[in-house]
Amino acid sequence: MQCPICKEQIRANTTVCEHCGFLIADAPPETLPGTDEVLPDRLPAPAREKPIKRTGVLWTLIFAVITLGIYIPIWFINRKEGINSLSSPHKLKPGTLVLAMVLYCLSVALGFSSGIISTAGVFTDRQDLVVFAKTLELFSNLSALAGGILVASLSVIVRKILQQHCDAKELKVRTSAIAAFFLQIFYLQYKINRIFPARQDTVRKFY
Predict the structure, then answer these.
(1) What gap in Å lies between CA 192 and CA 54, rounded to an integer?
(2) For residue 122, how far is the Cα from the chain centroid?
(3) Which single residue of 54, 96, 146, 154 has CA 20 to 30 Å from 82?
(4) Model pTM?
(5) What pLDDT, in 10s, does the model give residues 34-72?
(6) What are the residue ranges spanned by the domains of the chain?
(7) How many CB atoms are located within 10 Å of the residue 173 CB?
(8) Which DSSP helix (H) or strand (E) runs through 96?
(9) Distances 120 to 105, 117, 137 between C-alpha atoms, Å
(10) For residue range 155-166, what is the model confidence (pLDDT) as tens digits?
(11) Helix intervals (H) in 67-93
(12) At 39, is the secondary structure helix, strand, or coil?
């Protein structure tokens, strides 16, 4: 069998040319001489695995702290494309990631507003402002709780995706659902750094 681009000989039924990287499935199908019957040597090309951002666990913790937790949903958004390219039927849904981002931002915004209004109420001796500040604080805590539960579930899903990918690639790596649930992105980043060693196309990022 010959690659239609580089003309090098490749194995039959392969999906990617090992010489030039051309996707064989993209080439027009060959037919038997004198017939319209397509030769059965064109298989669907598998989705290419995309690199996942590698960041030190310490940097991940620092970013989460200085952004008051907003970096946590950003972590999932920045790595969604790479995670969804892994060998697993489970995928991260954009709507879920956006909802987590909204909940975290809302919690931080309500928390700041509550603190400012409460301080103003104390200095001006206005109890109505103090009561309103407590209401905002309550909604801030509820948003943080909902966002935390959502992120915990996302962490378990990503852990399952990583484990299924390792099993498909026959990598001797085990992951823990309990650790993913409680340590969330910090545990996931640690596992990603171990599963996907640094390569030329996998650059270590600081975010």
Answers:
(1) 7
(2) 44
(3) 146
(4) 0.72
(5) 444 444 444 444 456 678 888 999 999 999 999 999 999
(6) 1-46, 57-195
(7) 13
(8) helix 94-124
(9) 23, 5, 15
(10) 999 999 999 999
(11) 71-84
(12) coil
